[in-house]
Amino acid sequence: MDSEKPFQRTSGSIIEDEKVQYIEDGDSIIEGSEGVTQKDLDTYRHVADRLPYSAWLVLIVEFAERWTYYGTTNVFNNYIRAGLPPGSTSGAVAAANRDVGIAGALGQGVQKAFAITTFNSFWVYITPFVGGIIADTMWGRYTTIIVFSVVCLAGHIILVGSATPASLANPQAAMGILVLAIVVMGLGAGAIKANVAPMIAEQYTGKLRKETLPSGEVVIKSPSLTIQSTYLWFYAGINFGSCGAISASFLARDHGYWAAYLVPTGIFCLVPVVLILGRKNYVMTPPRGSVILETLRVITFALGPRWSLNPIKTVQAIRAKDFWDPARPSSYSEGQMPAKMTWDDEFVGEVSRTLNACTVFLFFPFYWLCYSQINGNLATVAAGMKLNGTPNDLIQNLNPIAIIVMVPFFDYVVYPLLRRWRINFTPIKRIYAGFLVAGLAMVYSAVLQHFIYLRSPCHDNLPSECKDAAGNPDASNINVWVVSGPYILVALSEIFASITSIEYAFTKAPKRMKSVVMAFSQFQNALSSALNFALVAVNVENKFAWLFGSFAVTAWVTGTIFFIVFRDLDRREEALNRIGKGDRAGFVDER
């Protein structure tokens, strides 16, 4: 088989650029499969394989970690923004006032609450790089998760201490302890996040194969569809865990914040227990050495000859087919290869794949701007509506509940129907759909906020803090459950965009860099938080309608540009998924 032929299409096959295996005709066996031909691939229905037992164990780990994360952060807004309710020392609301009262503790106002919760989001999505680099180069994913679970547990213990009545008696001291807890928890949680996502997909080791169902139908068991299904259920596990915030809202309102934070701390103890008990069942990927340093050297070698004072020439040179040649050992004559070049052509191909995957994620900060509203500002929106005994920060749990309901529906109904109808709903298309739906959620939010201004006795003058002459909350005459719309729409957008981004990070990243690429994917949340920091001045309640509307337009425009830029990758999805599935993983320039 000639692996040097240029890109071309032959009967029943797609053949990639340099050094990627191609299929001579429809009867050739696809390399890396169990006897599947291209004709089989084009003829039979594709289905997902079953997930191994060890994948479900990893899912339990993610469930417990996410319960702990959301069970604390989802009540941060009220904890920081609102002061102690009358007569309370713990943040709890007196039983007689629970129909209208809101739990609170530190009394720092909307902007400080927004700044601190945004910093928390920024920090927890920066730290995955720490866990990713350590796992890929030193400890491996399993050991990294174990070590940083201890760090995360220590942070949660500090958080419980910040919320005790003795601590809340001095709000400034409590604020300092809270920030310390956020830093420690974020370090642990971020390092875990970078490694759990690739670890669950690595538990599946099946290959492309034919199988006859009990009905007699012959199907193709597809690893790529199995990974897609894996991450759908992985995301469902995340959102099962985030439902822990439901109990946190009631615990904070009825018993105080120390109790609200203590329960998820106890749940987190499941993480090291499940990891240790299931140790013999896991598929573990060993660390591969100093990958990051070598990656930077490869990029430096490739970029060196390409720089020009003319930026247009520089961009054209970077996009050229021979861009990676200066970094490839095979490009040098014997004895001419630089001494610092300690890698092979295969590793250059992995760097190319890594950068290609990472560029897809660069549009996501604008998507996460929309998502960030459900964890902060929409809780403030809800506080300006008729609560009727419902904690204002409870409604946001509709987001994970909607995801839990939608995941099996999409996995068992929507996606199989699309495949049966020969509709190729590729990752790039799914991500684009996610941007569009997120923008729709922001339009809903903007319209709702406009009506709150109209109906609130205080109009646009802080309707969430509006009070009557007796000092009791005086909300706009709109039922708080009307705000459920944006939470459900954002959940649908996550099915398309967020889950697919995790899937894309795993399937397109080379084995030696999966944790780092996953960390880069999650880093886009941090960039979104940085953008939110820049918007603190306009992130005030009387400007919410304009803010939400602006985010809607941003999501639609950015999503459309995203699809235009990556439509070529969309067409090449099937071929890209085959790279590295055979006995060798040759060099490929995927730009």
Describe the model.
- The chain is mainly alpha-helical and 591 residues long.
- It has three domains: 8-43, no CATH class; 53-287 and 350-578, MFS general substrate transporter like domains (Growth Hormone, Chain: A), CATH 1.20.1250.20; 291-343, no CATH class.
- Helix content is 60%, strand content 4%.
- It has helices spanning 38-43, 53-73, 76-81, 109-124, 128-139, 141-162, 165-168, 171-202, 223-242, 244-255, 257-268, 270-277, 291-303, 311-318, 345-361, 364-372, 377-383, 398-420, 427-455, 484-496, 498-508, 514-534, 544-571, 573-578, and strands at residues 8-10, 13-15, 45-47, 209-212, 218-221, 385-386, 476-479.
- The strands form three sheets. A three-stranded mixed β-sheet has the order 3-5-4.
- Helix 4 (109-124) packs antiparallel against helix 22, helix 5 (128-139) packs across helix 8 (171-202) and helix 10 (244-255) packs antiparallel against helix 11.
